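step: validate -> pass
step: tokenize input -> pass
step: predict -> running
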Amino acid sequence: MQKRSRRKTKLTRRAVHEAATERPERVLRRAREFPFAGCWVQQGWQDYGIASLVVARTQSDDDLVFGRFLVDTFCLGVKDAFFGVNVPDAEFHNEALPRLFSGGMPVPIGVELAHEIVYGAVKYAEANGFRPHPLFRRAQLVLDLPDVHESTGVIQFGHQGVPTYIAAPGDNEVTILNTLISKRGKGAFKYIPAAAPPEGFEDLVERRENVPERSGIWTPQQQSPSRDTVSDSGLWTPGQDTPAQEPSDGDDEAEQQPADSSLWVPGR
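step: predict -> pass
step: emit ->
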């Protein structure tokens, strides 16, 4: 009887533990059932070519589940993505949201526009030869499906209609440029290097005076908000910087990524 009781206790504890660890994933899988709590993007995103965008939904227990997307609307599409669940409403608005935008004041936008920015950039990037960040597969569960919201066509991707690659430190510029040459051809895209261009690609450099001025939010000489997480899983906690994009190279990175979760949970 004692052995049976100990075994039952052990199994009960295991079930409780597994339920606790699985619940965030179940919440994420159900995210499309929840009403939208809001969508935000940084000011001037159309001029910068980089849209830091957050979409949140209200869970059945009134906590929030959110997805954050770093979108290059000029060329590469979704460069980074992660998500969080079980975030109390006050904590999200007072702590998480300001950190997600590095202390700046984001602009509330409509659900339709948020979806058009993300999915439109994904489609545009695919035409350039690039797939979204591997973690987009999970984070996009906070979004509706691509065909739910009709595209207005008011957003112009690329700069002046032309794919424009503005390199960031850490990018695999050679691979990205070779992809653009293969998909678009020389002369059919613009290129602004982060520093000196890779050897053999000097003739692709776009003169900086032809590019819109950058803001303090992001420039080619700066990384987007830096990643300082407890592991390589993409976890983000309120006391840390926001995750930044992994280096983009346009190859088969999706299959090479670790299977760790990109989940952010309060207090972890």
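step: describe -> Residues 15-22, 210-240, 242-268 have pLDDT under 50 and may be disordered.
step: cleanup -> pass
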